[in-house]
Amino acid sequence: MFVVKAVGLLSGGLDSALATRIMQRLGFDVTALNFFSPFCTCTSKSHGCKNEAKRLAEELGMKVRVEFMGQEYIDLVRNPKFGYGKNINPCIDCRIMIFRRAKQVMEEIGASFIFTGEVVGQRPMSQRSTAMELIDRESGLSGLVVRPMCAQLLPPTIPEKEGIIDRGKMLAIQGRSRKEQIRVAKEDFGMTENLCSSGGCLLTDPHFAGRMRDLIDNDKSAGVKDARLLRVGRHFRLDSDLKVIVGRNHEENNKLEKMAGQDDFFFYPASGDAKGALTVAKGSFGKEAVEKIVRIAARYCKGANGGPVRIRYRRKSDDTSWVMSATPASEKSLESWRI
Question: How far, in Å, CA of 110 to CA of 231, rounded?
Answer without folding.
Answer: 40
